[in-house]
Amino acid sequence: MQDLETLKLGGVGLSPSRWALPPAGFVCLDVDASFYEENNRCRIGGVIRDFKGQPLAAFGQSILMSSFVVLRELFAILAGIEIIRERDINRVVVSSDSLLTVQAVTESNGDLSYVGLCASEINSLISVIDGASICHIKRSAN
User: How many angstroms separate the CA atoms of 107 and 115, rounded?
Assistant: First the structure.
């Protein structure tokens, strides 16, 4: 597998069309979220893998939430970053199949909406993790 095209905070990089290993020495946090209209609940989750593709941790949670995809993906990223921080992991590539979510995080600029506040929190958390980045991946790669 090829190394994942990553972006540092502040820009949008290429979107791989299939899952790829993170660069050597990095871990990858892949997140996703879904919405179930019949009960207004969403499912957020993710997996943390090392640079060899071996899973280090996985998480999933069902929560009552809006059908807004960006907000769901932001909550999944927050949940994953909490695990990253608990385990004191550095050199992290966060990937989401929601381009709008990645843009919200990388372009957070004082937006006081709920989405803007969540994105700003993620941006702050990622900025203190040594070597952290976030990227968009195509849905087929997630």
Answer: 12
Which range of 16-25, 87-96, 100-109, 111-120 scores highest in mean pLDDT? It is 87-96
Question: Is residue 19 pLDDT above 80, yes or no?
Answer: no
- The CA–CA distances, whole Å, from 44 to 70, 90, 96, 112, 119 equal 12, 22, 12, 23, 16
Contacts for 25 with CB less than 8 Å, ≥ 6 apart: 51, 91
> What's the chain's average pLDDT?
83
Q: Which of 10, 27, 5 is nearest to 123 (CA)?
A: 10
Residue 83 burial by Cβ neighbours in a 10 Å radius (0-12, 13-18, 19+)? middle
Domains and CATH numbers, the chain: 27-141 (3.30.420.10)
Report the C-alpha gap between 83 and 45 in whole angstroms. Answer: 12
Angle, to 10 degrees, between the axis of helix 99-106 and the axis of helix 69-86? 60
DSSP state of 109: -
Q: Which residue reads 């990553």 in tokens? A: 6
- pLDDT tens digits for range 45-62: 999 999 999 999 999 999
